[in-house]
Amino acid sequence: MARLLTILLLTLTLALPARAQEQATLISDSIEITGDTRLIADGNVEVFYKGRRLKASRIIFDQATDRLEIVGPIVLTEDSGEVIILGSQAELQADLAQGILTSARLVLNRQLQMAANTITRVSGRYTELETVAASSCKVCAGDPTPLWEIRARKVRHDEVERQIYFDNAQFRVAGIPVFYIPRLRMPDPTLDRATGFLMPSIRTTSDLGTGLKLPYFIALTPSSDLTLTPYLTTRDSQTLELRYRQVFATGRIELNGAITNDDLIPGDPRGYLFVDGSFTLPLNFGLTIKGQTVTDPAYLLDYGIANLDRLDSRIEASRTRRNEHISARVISFQSLRDDEDNTTLPALTADLTFHRRFSLGALGGEGGLRLQTHNHWRSSVSPLDGPDSDDIADGRDLARISARIDWRRSFILPLGIEATVLGEASADAYSVAQDAVFQGKTTRTHGNAGIELRWPWVKAGANGATHVIEPVAQVIWASSDAESLPNEDSVLVEFDESSLFALDRFPGSDAVERGPRANLGVTWTRHDPSGWSMGVTLGRVFRKDDLGQFGPGSGLDGSQSDWLASVNFDLADGLALTARTVFDDDLTLTKGEARVAYSGERTALASSLIWAVADPLENRPDPTQEITFDARRKLNPNWTAKVSGRYDFVADRGTVAGMGLEFLNECVRFDVSLSRRFTSSTSVTPTTDFSLSLDLVGFGSGVTAGPARTCRQ
Question: Which of the listed CATH numbers 3.30.70.260, 3.20.20.120, 3.40.50.2300, 2.60.450.10 matches domain 6-196?
Fold first, then answer.
């Protein structure tokens, strides 16, 4: 018989008081009413009631007993849409909130499945299961044994608290019992946070031996939580890690730390503390908080926390608008390097910056104003340069007030040439203490002005590609006079395509680029209609006089700079390549770097190469020649291989190497990795690190399920 698509609104609770009556919607192929109280719906039956949905092949409703007899296959969905019950037959109350299903399954969040001989619905809140097998793994008819499962005599699911309670539980892997737990409580997959143990992880290092981490998560309030992680190793290391998180109406804060007793530094407790926070302040200001401290230089590497050689703690309030930036910050540094003494580093730095862009009305063009104050303090009191020989007095304290104005205006000349007039003027006042060379108060004024000409040539190719060639000539006049001032924030100078046509190539305020000069260059860009693009830049700086402002490693020293050449590719298939070289007339390389990144469907790669000559002015007494790489390859839908490393060509050895393997499917994530740190110092020794982690998808792990297994016919 063809389906009748009969839709009836039936009052299933006529026996209840009128105020409690609610209607249900029933759809079926055929409906038969026998007597006065018995209704039989047969064929493709669906019932909607109080947000619940019941699908079955046959339903018998007896109004006298207010019961439903249901013949399967049965599918019962709660109003949340996350809880599904499947069974072969059932006897339920008319409101579907209480009753018994036989040969049934309970599915939570489309992940965790629990099969049972019987499922009992109690008070619309609890689901009780007898003789249960629970797993989030896909089960095939030809291979009914899941990768992992929990067998239990009895299970209760609390839908309000979203907790699952197991009695007499047994954890099995590939059908083999691994361990027995008399009583087990776990969150269901719909619960984001609940107090309890998280999945453990294993870590093995050559210094600490094999250790186990067992995190315990504590939900303190709806807006805060605490995670405590004991970490015990076979070489007598005891660590307690902690993570505290809290969100507020205007921001968030997170604290990570640990305290350790081990034999690497006997008798002294070791540990670290990191603080990270961000808040929204009135007037659209933002506040960021960052704190980092550690007891000894080797701790972070020994325990695999972070690969840092300097710690940066700061508090900063800032606001950035279209034409304005305001910031105020206080910074503290802690060095972990063997060759640096924290007493001679700026222990405390404070900056205040106001930067504003504006139009100049009748004068035309765009102007800018920047006001800045800077202060830093060292704990050393020595006015001389100590054993580190860095040309900085060990106890130098400094205060500076700076002001800078700039202006530029562009004009379009015949033949499409763009001419720009630009200029800049700055004034600085310094107060230096505890420095035998720069002691006292000093002022400096500096200005420069220039003309820039750009002549872009555009051509459209026959295949739709667009070519843009743009020669640029920039002539700058600037004073050659030099004041005796300390330089601490402008030591490292980058000569690249972004600074080729800059008025001042020094990154900070302590140094200014002096003397007349000409910046010449040309760029070529190609945009292909297939989606890829390519850009090439070639340029050089010519000076009237060599004022000795730059070091040999910058490529800017001498009366004429080295050649700058850069190229970049951006392909539509996810491949990006950037390369930059600085070389002299003899093609001798001064500095070079290259970066390549590829992100494909199965492969991801990121690698960088740097090559730089030694430059004592940049605190680099030895050349730098190093390559790093990080790659991932999806071997199949479930397995992913990872490899990473860093190699130092000057030392002719690797510094870091690592490899790993990850398995992810619909029910489990398994991650194993091996890494080796080859470099050593007085505080850090070469170390091998092995780690293993396992997450069961569907038990509140937070892991997104991967591809499910395919059942063979």
Answer: 2.60.450.10
